[in-house]
Amino acid sequence: MAAAGHTVEGRHFRTRADYEAALRDKKKIDMIKSQTDFDNPQEVLALYARMKAGAYRFETMVGHDFDDRIYELAEKYGRQSAAQRGRSRRGKKKPKQRSESGKTRGRISLDDFDGEMRREIAAQLKARDRRRRWLTGICAMGAVFCFGYFFWYYYLAERSGADYEQLASLKNSDVLAKEKEEPAVLRGEEEKIELPEVLDEYKTLYNKNKSLIGWLKIDDTIIDYPVMQTSNNDYYLNHNFNQEKDNNGSIFMDAGCTAYPRSQNLILYGHHMRSGRMFGDLEKYAKESYYKEHSIIHFDTIYEKSIYQVMYVFRTKVLKENEIAFKYYQFIDAGSVEEFNSHMNEMAQMSLYDTGVTAGFGDELLTLSTCDNSQTNGRFVVIAKRIQ
After folding, report:
1. Is residue 136 helix, strand or coil?
2. For the whole model, what pTM was predicted?
3. The dihedral sign for the CA sequence 379, 383, 333, 187
4. Mind listing the pLDDT tens digit for each residue in 342-352?
5. Which of 13, 199, 226, 278 has the fewest beta carbons closer than 10 A?
6. What is the CA radius of gyration of the chain?
7. C-alpha angle with apex 135: 130 to 136, nearest 5 degrees?
């Protein structure tokens, strides 16, 4: 439980750094409040436009709570403004009729000026028209670029999705399953340990790419992917299963984990893609209702099948090396009961809600990790315990 001194605007913060970040957000919010009349719709809508444009950056949930309040208030004032404009149009008077001379009362014509002034006005109008055409051209090119970018982005996302559907169809396939294999051994071990035989279900996929280490699936979600592993955590950030350059990357296991003999905690990483691909939808676990409908995770290594139950869900960030604090991405094997229990307590305190699921020393865990854009170097993490 966070100390009382680490509470800001009803939010509790575990570390001193997060607490200080929350205080900075509160100071920024107090400044905004002092400069804004929240009973004035125009000021609120102007503030919302500035926030949407990125004029104010918040670091913690204190800032994001304020952001949500401004959004709701702006939406309310926006509806009122739209309703007023509708009433105004309905009550608008018809334009005045032209006089017998053909001119509308009060309108100024070029004929009212001398020749030199008419030429000057014409030149100004021509220059303004050129500027308008130039700006229109720039905007049109920008629109074409944006539409092109988004089309290409979603085209690649759809192609990637089709590729993974094809890979899923190769599970249980015997296309390459009968390819002769040499007995596999653990690399880097002084005493060689012969690895188990790859499950029949994954033999074809494994023979296509020996970096395959497992398959992750969460029912009724887009998450249904092969899991890769190499000797580093960089390659599959921007390569797909076919080892092609791909901004979607792949789901991959931390290089420090081993599927056999199995590490106590297997850590899987994936990009938070806007299209929802990879771990783009993982953040939906922030809502307890979503967790209740998707509490079971299927993760098979290429050697054995397993089922996990979600235990903790939390937001955190990548810390500096010299910061002394719990770093979930360094928890692969606990050396003692005390160390394991300490890690469990840390994650329980950070968890967004209580699932009622707990783990003891000797239980096997699964960690799913992706980026969290709500804070600098943020991470969104789901921890699950093996139940089968």
Report:
1. helix
2. 0.59
3. negative
4. 999 999 999 99
5. 199
6. 30
7. 95
